[in-house]
Each structure stands twice: as structure tokens, then as C-alpha cells.
């Protein structure tokens, strides 16, 4: 039989069976699409449409120009500073930890414990995490009291735990483990042979990191740092539990605008802010994905 | 490797493990310490804060609600997601990427942003359906979607779904039988994974409940802390240790099976999955 003939038979046979099945098969997917339509796409649509309309439903861009108000610009600035700082600290800390893990026994108990614990700690956040730090370095916290008894007072000019520096410190707690999880595969891909090759060519430790391992790891490191940035940029609960008044960062401002308790509930502006946040996170995670793809070319 | 370099490396590793170990464990120990403090400065340690948990009706009802939500979300996730994923693999493989994309969307939409769009929907639900806290399960299912999708996807990729289901069908099994007696038993560890992570996420959830004005566990802990810091920290530690236990079980027991022949390859895939899920990890709790 010719190739053309077999294609013709297959083509003739398929539509009948296919269409009969198809008419019933679709039903199986309906619940999933209805549910995600109602609780994932509808909220997104509400955000997009709501940010572009007034309360009466007329088109407006006022909500977006509303973001230019000084207190919101300040909140965006603070959000970016906190996210960048905690991402930087978390990336360096996590990379050092990952290196300490990667240089150990690949099947050892230590490695397994650290990676498992990181998976757990990276999930840790919110109210409980804020409390943990209040109980540790808060004004009645055990570490603060202990150090104060020994002559070290790290609050010489008042408590900074409930402000931006405190948020950076606390966010580091979930950033470091996340960095370990996402960066370890890249470090594992570095072969000891490459170091030996560098040495046999007369290079030292500096040459190895500057010309071999550094350039290889740089895209992954950068990508993971971006992911950490997105991670702390979207965090809300920890800050909400720690900072009870005012909206220091964007998520807190959104919450303020949503709840009418403050007397200035502005759903349109809240939606515009939400959309701005989504766009930032989307851009950052896209860059992360692109950089990770570069790394996966050589990691095996 | 020279001797001095090996020594330096070991010194570096030990320092890192001690410093970071302290950074991660001290806050948890501090919470335990805080929750057993006496009322006065020199009062002896006691367990009053822990006893107060059961004597605070607000906390008891919030704990009950959160546990119920965890169970409902978990069951709804399995009922909605598993059959859909199986069905797509068998009948609409061309839609596989689309379903994956949809399931991973909640990762790029911060919870605090998503809740803004949920407020009007929940206003409608409150008026027309029910104002019970259990309606939060609708929103929580969205939150757990990416994580449970990853877990179930790993399980489904490990079995030959097409052959299994065709074999069962040719022996006269109905689709329900195929699902419950063929698919589910073959991927039980993936199902356990997806369930554990869903339960842990729901128990730690604060953003949705707080902004949709429901009092779940985390919201209640936050309120109680204003009145009685010791008790709220005691509940927080208890909830935390419970979630830690669940997630530890998850990361130690529930690993995808590693085929012997391609161990190295598989290990890479496992670490990649872990890496990915790490990248997707827990904005829900924060």
C-alpha cells in the first residue's frame, strides 16, 4: 500500500470515531474550566476591568494616574527596596549554604536534611514567622534580653523590627532556603574535573571562580535572585502581622484600600495597584524562566 | 585537593551550618520559650498559655474551621484535578500544556492581588449562597492548584496511563473503576504529596481569610495576639510544628520512584522538580 493510501484510510477512519467520542469527551473537562473560569479568570478580569473603570462603569485611566500619588510611590519604592535587599541577602546566604551542601557527600544525611528542611522553611511565613521574630529579637524577645544583659543593645535608637529593616531580616528567613532549593541543581552541575583542568593549566582558585565557575553560574544566580525578588514582592501576611498601622509596602496599601475601615476604600485604585503588582511579578518571573533555560543547557 | 584547601573548605562548611542553623532554629526555640513564660518577671515557667488555647472559644472555632477547610480543599482538589488530568492525558493530549499553564497561573498572581478580584465574587457568594467560612475552600483550591498539579503530574508521568486504562477498559471496567481501582492505587504517593502540601498551605493561609473577613486559624492567632501574646504564640508554634511534620513527611517519604537504570538522570529530574516546586513555593502562606 502506498503512503498516500494509508493516510487516506486513516483520515477516513478517524473523524467518525473521533467525533463520536469528542461529543461526550468534552463533558469531562467542563468542571475544571467552569471552576477556573469563575475563580481564576473572573477575578483577573475584575481586576483588569475594575482598574480601568469608575464606580459607575465609565472608562477612566484615573486609577493608574492615582498610583502617582506620593504615598503610593513611596510604598512602591519601599516594596522594591525590601524585595531587592532581602533577595540579595537571601541569594548570597542561600548560595553559600548551597555551596556548603554541594561540596559534601551527595548521598549524605546532612544534604538530605538540609534540602528537606529548606523545603519546609521556604514555606514558612505569615503571622507565625512575624511572631517568631518578635519572640526572638523583639523588645521582650529572648535573644534581645540575653544580649542586653551582656551589654549589647541592638536597639540603641528604638526598635527597628517593626519597620523596613525588620521586614528585610524576617524575609531573609524564607529567602535563604528558597535560594538553596533553586540554586543547588546548578551548583551540582559543576564538575570537579573543570577545577582540575583549570589547575593543570596553571590557574588558581581565583582564576577558577573568575573564568570558569563564575560565568557558568552567573545566569542561574541572577535568575534565582529575581525569583527571590518576586517572592518577597508578593508577600503580604508577614508584613500585615508585623506592621499593624499604615501601609509601608504595596501589599499593605492594597489591603488598606480594600477594607473600608480606614474610611477611604477605593476599589478602583486597589485594582490598579493589584494589576501593577501582577505585571511586576510577571516580568520578573519571565526573566527568571529565561535565565533558568540558559542554565539547563549545561546542567546535567 | 591540597590539605590546606580541604581544611579551609571544612572550616567554611562548619561555619555556614552553625551560623545558618542558629538563624533558623533559634526563632522557633524562642517561640517555645515565650509561650512558657510566667506572667511576672521572675515567675516560674508554666504551661498556662498552652492551656488557654482550648479555653479560648475564638481559637477553638478557628482551628476547627481551618481543619475543615483543609479537608474540603484537599478532597475538592483531588476530585476536580485528578480526573481532569487523567482525561486530558487520555483524550486531549494537545490540551496538556494549556491545563498546565492554567494551573500554574496562581504563581504569577500574588495572593494579595488575586484577593482584590475575589472580593466582589465573595460579596455575591455571601448574599446568594452562604456566608459560612467554608466557602473559602473555593479560593483555597486556586491557591493549592499549582502545587498539587506538580505533585500529581509527577505521579502521572511515572505510570503508563494509556496502557493501564486501556487494559482495564478492555476487561470491562467503567471509567469510575479505572480511576478508583487502577489509577489511584498506582499513584498513591503522588496523591499523598498533593494532599499534604494542600493541607499545609490551607493551615498557613492568612491573606484571603483576612481580606475576605473570615476568621481562620491564622487570622484568629493574629487577633488573639493583641490580647494574649503567650497564647497566640503557643497556637502558632503548635500549628507550625504540625505543618512542619506534614512537610517533612512530604520531603522524606513522598519522593517520586527512581528507576534503577537511569538513576543519575532521574536524580537530576527529581532535583529539577524540587527546584521548580521551590520556585513555586509558598506565596500562599504569606
Q: What structural category arises from helix and sheet content of chain B? A: mainly alpha
Rg from alpha-carbon coordinates of chain A: 26 Å
Helix content of chain B: over 70%
CATH class annotation of the largest domain in chain A: Mainly Alpha
The name of the CATH architecture of the largest domain in chain A is Orthogonal Bundle
CATH names the topology of the largest domain in chain A as MetI-like fold
Into how many domains do the coordinates of chain B divide?
1
The percentage of residues in β strands of chain A lies in under 5%
CATH class categorisation of chain B? Mainly Alpha
Q: At the fourth CATH level, what is the homologous superfamily of chain B?
A: MetI-like
Alpha-carbon distance between the two ends of chain A: 44 Å
Order of helices and strands of chain B: HHHHHHHHHHHHH
Distance between the termini of chain B: 44 Å
What's the overall average pLDDT of chain A, rounded?
84
Overall form of chain A? globular
Largest sheet of chain B: none
- Spans of chain A with pLDDT under 50 lasting ≥5 residues? 1-19
Q: Report the strand count of chain B.
A: 0
Observed structural traits:
heterodimer; A: 300 residues; mainly alpha; MetI-like fold; 2 domains; 75% helix; B: 286 residues; 78% helix; globular
Walk me through this protein's architecture.
The complex is a heterodimer of chains A (about 300) and B (about 290). With about 300 residues, chain A is mostly helical. Chain A has helices at about 5-25, 30-50, 60-65, 70-100, 110-120, 125-135, 140-150, 165-190, 190-200, 205-235, 235-240, 250-260, 265-295. Chain A starts with a helix and ends with a helix. Chain B has a single domain (about 55-280), classed as Orthogonal Bundle (MetI-like fold). In chain B, about 80% of the residues lie in helices and about 0% in strands. Chain B has helices spanning about 5-35, 50-55, 55-90, 95-110, 110-130, 135-155, 160-170, 175-185, 190-205, 205-210, 215-225, 230-250, 265-280. The two termini of chain B are about 45 Å apart. Chains A and B meet through helix 2, helix 4, helix 5, helix 6 and helix 8 of A and helix 1, helix 3, helix 4, helix 5 and helix 6 of B.
Amino acid at each position: 500500500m502506498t503512503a498516500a493510501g494509508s493516510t487516506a484510510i486513516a483520515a477516513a477512519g478517524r473523524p467518525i470515531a473521533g467525533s463520536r467520542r469528542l461529543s461526550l469527551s468534552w463533558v469531562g473537562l467542563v468542571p475544571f474550566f467552569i471552576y477556573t473560569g469563575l475563580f481564576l479568570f473572573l477575578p483577573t478580569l475584575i481586576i483588569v476591568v475594575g482598574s480601568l473603570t469608575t464606580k459607575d462603569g465609565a472608562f477612566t485611566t484615573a486609577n493608574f494616574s492615582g498610583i502617582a500619588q506620593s504615598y503610593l510611590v513611596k510604598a512602591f519604592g519601599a516594596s522594591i527596596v525590601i524585595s531587592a535587599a532581602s533577595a540579595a541577602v537571601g541569594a548570597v546566604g542561600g548560595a553559600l549554604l548551597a555551596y556548603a551542601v554541594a561540596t559534601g557527600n551527595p548521598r549524605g544525611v546532612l544534604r538530605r536534611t538540609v534540602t528537606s528542611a529548606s523545603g519546609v522553611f521556604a514555606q514558612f511565613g505569615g503571622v507565625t514567622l512575624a511572631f517568631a521574630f518578635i519572640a526572638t529579637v523583639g523588645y521582650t524577645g529572648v535573644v534581645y534580653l540575653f544580649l542586653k544583659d551582656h551589654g549589647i543593645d541592638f536597639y540603641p535608637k528604638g526598635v527597628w523590627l517593626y519597620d523596613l529593616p525588620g521586614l528585610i531580616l524576617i524575609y531573609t528567613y524564607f529567602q535563604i532556603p528558597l535560594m538553596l532549593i533553586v540554586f543547588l541543581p546548578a551548583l551540582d552541575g559543576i564538575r570537579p574535573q573543570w577545577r582540575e583542568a583549570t589547575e593543570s593549566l596553571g590557574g588558581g582558585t581565583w582564576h577558577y571562580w573568575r573564568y570558569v565557575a563564575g560565568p557558568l553560574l552567573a545566569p542561574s544566580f541572577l535568575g534565582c535572585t529575581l525569583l527571590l525578588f518576586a517572592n518577597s514582592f508578593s508577600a503580604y501576611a508577614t508584613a500585615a502581622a508585623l506592621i499593624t498601622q499604615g501601609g509601608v509596602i504595596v501589599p499593605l496599601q492594597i489591603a488598606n484600600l480594600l477594607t473600608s475601615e480606614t474610611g477611604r476604600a477605593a476599589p478602583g485604585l486597589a485594582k490598579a495597584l493589584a494589576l501593577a503588582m501582577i505585571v511586576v511579578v510577571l516580568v520578573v518571573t519571565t526573566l527568571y524562566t529565561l535565565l533558568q533555560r540558559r542554565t539547563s543547557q549545561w546542567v546535567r | 585537593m591540597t590539605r590546606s584547601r580541604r581544611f579551609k573548605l571544612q572550616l567554611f562548611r562548619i561555619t555556614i551550618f552553625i551560623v545558618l542553623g542558629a538563624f533558623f532554629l533559634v526563632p522557633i526555640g524562642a517561640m517555645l520559650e515565650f509561650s512558657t513564660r510566667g506572667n511576672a518577671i521572675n515567675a516560674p515557667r508554666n504551661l498556662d498559655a498552652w492551656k488557654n488555647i482550648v479555653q479560648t472559644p475564638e481559637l477553638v472555632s478557628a482551628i476547627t474551621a481551618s481543619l475543615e477547610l483543609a479537608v474540603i480543599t484537599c478532597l475538592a482538589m483531588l476530585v476536580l484535578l485528578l480526573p481532569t488530568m487523567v482525561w486530558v492525558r487520555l483524550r486531549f493530549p494537545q490540551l496538556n500544556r494549556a491545563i498546565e499553564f492554567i494551573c500554574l497561573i496562581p504563581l504569577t498572581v500574588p495572593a494579595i492581588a488575586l484577593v482584590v478580584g475575589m472580593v466582589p465574587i465573595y460579596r455575591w457568594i455571601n448574599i446568594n449562597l452562604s456566608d459560612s467560612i467554608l466557602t473559602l475552600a473555593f479560593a483555597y483550591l486556586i491557591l493549592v492548584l499549582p502545587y498539587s498539579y506538580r505533585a500529581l503530574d509527577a505521579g502521572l508521568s511515572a505510570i503508563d496511563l494509556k496502557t493501564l486504562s486501556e487494559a482495564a477498559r478492555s476487561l470491562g471496567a467503567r471509567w469510575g473503576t479505572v480511576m478508583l481501582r487502577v489509577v489511584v492505587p498506582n499513584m498513591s504517593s503522588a496523591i499523598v504529596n498533593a494532599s499534604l502540601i494542600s493541607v499545609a498551605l490551607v493551615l498557613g493561609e492568612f491573606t484571603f481569610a483576612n481580606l475576605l473577613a473570615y476568621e481562620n486559624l491564622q487570622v484568629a492567632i493574629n487577633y488573639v495576639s493583641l490580647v494574649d501574646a503567650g497564647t497566640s504564640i503557643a497556637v502558632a508554634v503548635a500549628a507550625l510544628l504540625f505543618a512542619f511534620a506534614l512537610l517533612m513527611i512530604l520531603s522524606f517519604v513522598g519522593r517520586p520512584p527512581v528507576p534503577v537504570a537511569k538513576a543519575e538522570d532521574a536524580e537530576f529530574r527529581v532535583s529539577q522538580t524540587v527546584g521548580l516546586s521551590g520556585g513555586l513555593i509558598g506565596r500562599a502562606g504569606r
